[in-house]
Specification:
The protein is an all-beta fold. It contains no helices and eight strands. The chain has one domain: Jelly Rolls (Sandwich). It is 0% helix and 50% strand.
Length: 105
């Protein structure tokens, strides 16, 4: 049975929604839905896995610990190496941001 990445997105997103789409021993694929959420100030992701992320809808800003920022709009993607400290600095509050994230070792 096929599914659609844009299906089952709630109208109200009080917290980011992480949906596991596929997982095996080496890779994990998630759909993430945001609307105005961001990583709290002073907090950083420091992941053991590499991450490749694409914004399918909406807008967001990813910030690295060195303050380098990447603004992502629909169709933009970014590779984040393992242990590259980063955070979601901003997601648009006026529309949903739908991400597809792929994690691997």
């Amino acid at each position: 049975m096929s599914e659609n990445i844009f299906d089952n997105v709630p109208d109200v997103i009080p917290e980011e929604i992480f949906s596991l789409l596929l997982k095996d021993k080496n890779v994990r694929i998630e759909r993430i839905v945001s609307q105005g959420q961001r990583t709290p100030a002073g907090e950083w992701y420091d992941q053991m896995q590499n991450e490749w992320v694409i914004v399918l809808e909406g807008e967001a800003v990813i910030e690295y610990e060195n303050m380098e920022q990447h603004t992502l709009k629909a169709g933009d993607y970014l590779f984040i190496p393992a242990h590259k400290r980063h955070r979601v600095a901003w997601t648009t509050a006026t529309e949903k941001t739908i991400w597809l994230a792929v994690y691997w070792l």
